[in-house]
Write a structure and sequence with these properties.
The structure is a single chain. With 601 residues, this protein is of the alpha/beta class. It has 2 domains: 280 residues, no CATH class; 191 residues, Rossmann fold, CATH 3.40.50. 55% of the residues lie in helices and 7% in strands. A 6-stranded mixed beta sheet has the order 1-3-2-4-5-7, with helices on both faces. The chain has a 3-stranded antiparallel beta sheet with strand order 6-9-8. A hairpin with a 2-residue loop joins strand 8 and strand 9. Helix 3 packs across helix 4 and helix 17 crosses helix 23. The longest helix is centred in the first third of the chain and has 30 residues. The chain is elongated. The relative contact order is 0.09.
Length: 601
Amino acid sequence: MFFVISGFLITGIVNRECHAQGFTISRFYSRRIKRIFPALLLVLITTWLAGYALMTPSEFRELGKSLIRSAYFSNNFLLISQAGYFDTHADLKPLLHLWSLAVEEQFYIAWPWLILLASRISQYGKPLLLTLGAISLACNLALTPTQPVESFFLPHTRAWELIAGAILATHAHTLHRSLLQIVNPALLAPCGILLISLSYLFFSGDAPYPGWRAMVPVVGAMLVILGENKGTFSQRILSARLPVTIGLISYPLYLWHWPLFSFARILFDHPTIAMIWILLILSIIAAWITYRYIETPLRHGAWKPLKSPFFPIGGLLLLVTIGALGDWTRANKGWPGRLTGNSWQDLQWTKELIADEACKKHMQEQIYIGYCRISNDGPITHALFGDSHANHFFDGLSPAIEQRGGNLLQLGGPFVRTTDTNWNNLDFLLKHSEIKMVFIAYHQGRIKEVDNPFEEIMERIVSTLTRAGKTVVFIVDNPEFDTDPRLNIQRPPIAEWLGAGENAEIKTTETLDYIQRKRTAYRSYVEQLSQRYPTLRFFDALTPFCEQGICVTRKDQKLLYRDRHHLTQHGARLLFLKTDLDTDIVKFTDLESMRPNKVTQ
């Protein structure tokens, strides 16, 4: 909707100026700067100040990266590079919403030149714009099923939505006349609102987007624009005072609302209903103040410097300065000196803890190294195979195996039956007879997901390794919590004054009974797996985190978890600290975590 309206308004203005022989590129960009920059600059610097006052160093460093890209209208490319399993949740990125502004401005780098060209070659101009829109739409439809992240953020796969609005501005009369032959013009706007409403009701984040689904709200927005201005619906509903007022402040409201809600999520995880209403009201107030006292005076004021050709240049320089401020924040690692403690460091998990250079160097064969870690340069004796949970167990299991004179290798395991290149890692393990014991670890939550590695995939892994004569150990997964443990790390004084940071211990605990009830399907699966493979052994990674029926994410002022289900390095080491591989690797019948109502003494 945002893209369609933008394409319609901007192209309409440019078309009128071209027909009047009054269009210039410099005037176009000068007007864009006056329209976009004032509110944007205010929101960017306010968000940086809020980050300084509220965020941990690691969070603030990431905000610095986002500030750089937001200032240079390339935030969409940053989000593509960050996408992945370990990416920070979207709600925790205060400047994430500026991806759409980035796409819009990238579009307008080229669009006025194309319209100018189209006006000069009137015979081919209109077909040219239609062709570009069709190519962009085709790219979107082709890319979304296989690369939804790229399709969502890339300018050439979203340009068709802006061009849809541009087509309205260029062909509105023809389209309106054609529609009159098949539908009552008074129904266009209501039908458009209906399509937009259906998008909100029936499309979810689980389905690939944009793809064909984006065509529904796009067509809806087009129908609303084509709707009869003097119709009953348009006059009484769309032209009422409230929607018109929201329309006037829509741009600053778009800029302000997301950082406010994002900071609330960062500090409190799940804001209360009352907090949500307060944030909504604050967003509207901030948007109105920005519109009334920043946007309007700078765009339409009579102050002489506003008319100077150097005014837009000053805006560009300020934006570059804010980008430099973001880079300074990134380079200084979020200024750790703002905090007196270092509990936030427990959340760190660098790329080197996923695939280290020693492992890559050691592996001479062609394997997929999404996960690749190794204890030392000696002969490999043990392997740890699976997903990110195998990866986080490495920091605890590796020292335990090294104490026995062994060497642990960790590799990624497959998620699908046929096309997953991680099956090559299983072949690698089979080729090396010196690897006597293989630990298998997958996140128990995957049992409810589409890429479920359990059932057929797990059975194939276990049976293949067992037939090869290896001892196979299934690591029964650690507890998974509802509350994010990062809520219990130290924050700057202002954040703690607001009630965030090191809160009550209740936020770091859940009862063992509740944990077990959440993983009923997983427990049932593990029992069935043990029955199919009597020689399979198990290691309990649940019970050590639970004492007296209470499971914890924090112990002795140290975080054991870096998110709801991934362990910190300290948590992994604590899990395997007193592990005896001869006695703690057990048969299913001796597995403590599978006993009903088990309470560790």
